[in-house]
Amino acid sequence: MQGKITGIDITGNQIIAVQVKTGLKGPQILSWARVAIEDGGLNEALESLSGSPVLKSDRYLATIPGDHVSFRNVQMPFKDVKKIRQALPFEMENMLPFQIEDLLIDFIITDGLARGEVLAASCNRRFVSEYLDTLQRNGIDPDALEIRCSPLASWLLRQPGTPEHILLLEIGETSNTMVLCLNRSIALIRVFGSNNASIIQSTPKENGTSSDLGAPPPEEVEACFKFISTTIRSTVHAFASEKDTLSGPEKLFFTGAGSLAPNAEGLLSQFLGMPAEQLDMSNDKKIRLEGNIVRDWSPALMNGPLSLALRNTRRGEGFNFRREEFERKRGYFGLKKAAPKMAGFLFLIFSFLAADMVIDYYTLKKEYKILNREIISVFKQTLPEVTRIVDPVQQLRVKVKELKQSTSLRPEAGTSKKILDLLKEISQRIPASLNVHVNRMVIDTETVRISGKTDAFNEVDRIKNNLESSIQFSGVTISSANLDRTGKGVRFEIRIERKQ
User: Fold this and answer.
1) Phi and psi at residue 193, in whole multiples of 5°?
2) Which of 227, 229, 403, 448 is the most exposed place for a label (fewest CB within 10 A)?
3) Residue 453 domain-assigned?
């Protein structure tokens, strides 16, 4: 889409906006602005930008601060995107300490739908409402509310020469955002806090991020980078262990205010044990950077909003919290501008419909008769005792409703009390002296499946024998017991038959 687009990257302490003009020659950076968020909050900071050229655009895209977003990696039982969007809130209900109705959820595919794995992001609906209201009161009605660093990671993965497995790190003043990408897809996003004051104070003063307190000792700066690297290594290791994957990042790309510190590249490369490179989107030959913009441009600060302005909204790339009740409504003037193109499309559509209606009528009539016969056949197979068929679909609905009502009256239909009693029984049967870590437990009306890790095979047998002595279980079976990859523990799965 041609026109002026502004990407607005908002953190807890500053707003950075970049305006881009798109056209046949490619994107051109027109202007940028940076404002600190002080005691007056986000509204006052946005008001100070009201006269800036950066806010005179055709379209806007904004980010949500990462500390207001919660991330979860979820394995879905199917691959269809529409089904995933419908079922994801129910899958996440037990993962989050909030009412699912209070959350707005979006997701991205992490594995190309090979196994139905998604990275889900959730944000409080009230916060989104207030946040969007503040933007709109200042003349900004964004097409998308994105998650920080996600557009930058997507842009980086599209660049030629980028490795299959990478790690993106943004070093902020009080928090850091890491994005792990595996097989050229975003697999993990984590935001973690750290005291980066020493790093920020060590940056050159001409970049606008230096403190008047003077440069801190090199050992303090090194300690900050070591803490960040240790947190990253722990996070990546935990993720890889959970997913049983051997793939790790091959290279680190870093940005943010902290990336301006001297020897940042060397320290990160040393502590993370991989090549590190400071990111600069302006090196992309497709992006035009001219005039006064070149002199004042700071890649470490501008990479985020620039990648946001170049985000591909047509393909639904990345996250977008402007959905459901917050979905952007097109105004009258936008429709008026698009009216000629819409009229042409509508004319073509109606022409095709008029030519197709006659053919479709006979085809649909034939299909209707075939489907009606199949419905009656299924009805007879399902309810052979019913001889009078009037409306087979409605009759089946009534029968299903009756079955649900009868099932809900059963005492073992899944009350919380029954589940708690069952968990209590299992907990009491496993001695406290055993070192047992349960990773997964699946409970239904007939069985309980427990997956976990312990120290030795004889401890698995001991767990099995203790559970068999319970009067609530009719049988206990060890489905599997294998050494883990370290050889120092045993992964096991036990199946328990519940007495009916």
Assistant:
1) -85, 155
2) 403
3) yes
Q: HSE-up of 311 (CA within 13 Å, CB side)?
A: 35
Residue 147 lies in a domain: no
CB 164 within 8 A of CB 334: no
pLDDT tens figures, 50-59: 888 888 888 9
CB 321, CB 128: distance < 8 Å: yes
State pTM to two decimals: 0.64
**48 located within any domain:** no
Residues 6+ apart with CB under 8 A from 95: 72, 74
User: What are 424-467's pLDDT values in tens digits?
Assistant: 888 888 888 888 999 999 988 889 999 999 989 999 999 999 99
Provide the domain count of the chain: 2
Judged against a pLDDT cut of 80, whether residue 209 lies above it is answered with: no
Which single residue is written with the structure tokens 């490179």? 277
Q: Does residue 397 sit within a domain?
A: yes
How far apart are alpha carbons 237 and 254 in whole angstroms? 19
Phi, psi at 61, each rounded to 5°:
-135, 140
Two structure tokens written together for 287: 């992006």
β-bridge pairing 117-124 and 103-109: antiparallel
**Pick from 122, 131, 85, 88: nearest CA to 103:** 122
Chain centroid to CA 352: 40
Domain that holds residue 346: 336-408
Query: pLDDT for 280-309, tens place per residue?
Result: 998 888 888 877 777 778 889 999 999 999
pLDDT tier at 313, thresholds 50, 70, 90: low
DSSP β-bridge partners for residue 485: none
* Residue that the structure tokens 């030795």 belong to: 456
Q: What does 277-342 look like in DSSP terms, one character per residue?
A: EE--GGG-TTSEE-THHHHH--HHHHHHHHHHHT--TTTT-S-----GGGPPPP-HHHHHHHHHHH
Banded model confidence at residue 177, pLDDT cuts 50, 70, 90: very high
Q: Cα separation of 178 and 171, whole Å? A: 9
Residue 315: what pLDDT? 58
Beta bridge partners of 103: 124
CATH number at residue 488: 3.30.1360.100
Pairing of strands 117-124, 175-182: unpaired
Alpha helices in 116-214 (DSSP H): 125-137, 150-158, 197-201
Q: What is d(CA 262, CA 37) in angstroms, rounded to the nearest whole number?
A: 26
What is the C-alpha to C-alpha distance for residues 329 and 132, in angstroms, rounded to an integer? Answer: 13
* Kind and range of the H or E run holding 404: helix 392-408
